[in-house]
Amino acid sequence: MSADRINLLRTKVFDKSKWMQLPRDVVIGHDVIEQIPAVCEDLALGDSVLIVSGGQTRDIAGKKVEALLSGSYDVATFAANVGDPLEAIRRAEAAAAEAGFVIGVGGGRVIDTAKIASYNTDRHFISVPTAASHDGIASSRASVPTPEGNVSLAAEPPVAVVADTAIIASAPHRLLASGCADIIANYTAILDWELSHRLRGEPLSEYALTLSRMTAEILFKNADLIKPHSEKSAWIVTKALVSSGVAMSIAGSSRPGSGGEHKFSHALEQLAPGKGLHGEKCGIGAIITMYLHGGDWKAIRGSLRKIGAPTTPAEIGVDDETAVAALLAAKTIRPERFTILDMGLTSESARDLVKMLYRE
Ligand SMILES: NC(=O)C1=CN([C@@H]2O[C@H](COP(=O)(O)OP(=O)(O)OC[C@H]3O[C@@H](n4cnc5c(N)ncnc54)[C@H](OP(=O)(O)O)[C@@H]3O)[C@@H](O)[C@H]2O)C=CC1
Ligand SMILES: O=C(CO)COP(=O)(O)O
Ligand SMILES: [Zn+2]
């Protein structure tokens, strides 16, 4: 299904996609989930709420949020993990239309479902990440898988982000490492954006680009501090993910955080569904695109290793031939987004790159 087809679902008569919308309250810290009632009261969002969560994340945090709000609000719940993602978005929209505001409690898929449903029904949205696994936590974009590839849509930016570091630090370390890789991928996303600016005249936002790069640099510098099940690590990474999401909101597109390495990840999602987390695939892709840009790809690989993120397709259960196919297919996903993977990659060169960069 194409982005246009998804847009048909929208009930809005005006388009906010060119607005620069940023979160108003960002609350990160130990046990801050307890502050959700105060955040909702402060923002005066209405008296009924839809809480969107996933199969595991409802037990991890969704039920807690339901209990915290049930005395003061009419609470409805929605399971975002059931069925086809587009169908889930449609059902979430119908549920959101019956509520005053929406809270998404979960990983990236849950948060994207909640923020699209909020956007399409013109409801405020609160983001409650249970894992620091992706930089959609605070952004005004949603990434939706379709049979033709992943599409990036304008979505409701959270009016508040409530990120409890106790919950985030308890999540499997793999999720945190994946969030770090999603941020490290900003380095190559920016290089692709600059390339497209120079070659194709694509507009650049200096502010968005600088914020995105600075976020990656801070994380890179702090890679030694990223440890499993540490609240300090959860705090460092969550702040970086919020910052990266703000860069996307400033740009009004995911360009500051999504280039060729993301297109490789989206192609892999089609060719090897269910293999690897989003950020893991982007990190693996960034090694190749950084090499192609002539940058320090070994430093990218070194920081991914230090953090505990995979650096080869084999580590996420993807064979080399599939990785080659994904590199070649990447340019067919969002062809309007020009990247280094559009610069003459051939089957032979893709095979050589996979052999060389994923073997050392
Ligand atoms: N909007 C944007 O700008 C962006 C969007 N994305 C999107 O986000 C998605 C990737 O997010 P990601 O979080 O990696 O993947 P998922 O949302 O698929 O979550 C991965 C798994 O982790 C589980 N999980 C989440 N939190 C915890 C926890 N605390 N403890 C144990 N398990 C937990 C989820 O459970 P459950 O079954 O409950 O869901 C799920 O099974 C992709 O769809 C991607 O396209 C990524 C980057 C940016
Ligand atoms: O994942 C993203 C940024 O990290 C954005 O997603 P898209 O690649 O779908 O635009
Ligand atoms: Zn990403």
UniProtKB/TrEMBL annotation:
Keywords: Cytoplasm, Lipid biosynthesis, Lipid metabolism, Metal-binding, NAD, NADP, Oxidoreductase, Phospholipid biosynthesis, Phospholipid metabolism, Zinc. NAD(+) binds at G108, R109, V110, I111, D112, T130, A131, A132, S133, S139. Signal peptide: none annotated. CDD domains: Gro1PDH (cd08173). The keyword Isomerase does not apply. It catalyses: sn-glycerol 1-phosphate + NAD(+) = dihydroxyacetone phosphate + NADH + H(+); sn-glycerol 1-phosphate + NADP(+) = dihydroxyacetone phosphate + NADPH + H(+). Pathway: Membrane lipid metabolism; glycerophospholipid metabolism. It comes from the Archaea. Binds 1 zinc ion per subunit. One of its GO terms (molecular function) is glycerol-1-phosphate dehydrogenase [NAD(P)+] activity. Coiled coil: none annotated. Zn(2+) binds at D182, H262, H278. Its main location: cytoplasm. Its EC number is 1.1.1.261. InterPro entries: G1P_dehydrogenase_arc, G1PDH, Glycerol_DH. It is found in: Cytoplasm. It is an enzyme of class 1 (oxidoreductase). Substrate binds at D135, D182, H266. Catalyzes the NAD(P)H-dependent reduction of dihydroxyacetonephosphate (DHAP or glycerone phosphate) to glycerol 1-phosphate (G1P). The G1P thus generated is used as the glycerophosphate backbone of phospholipids in the cellular membranes of Archaea. This is Glycerol-1-phosphate dehydrogenase [NAD(P)+]. It comes from Methanoculleus nereidis.
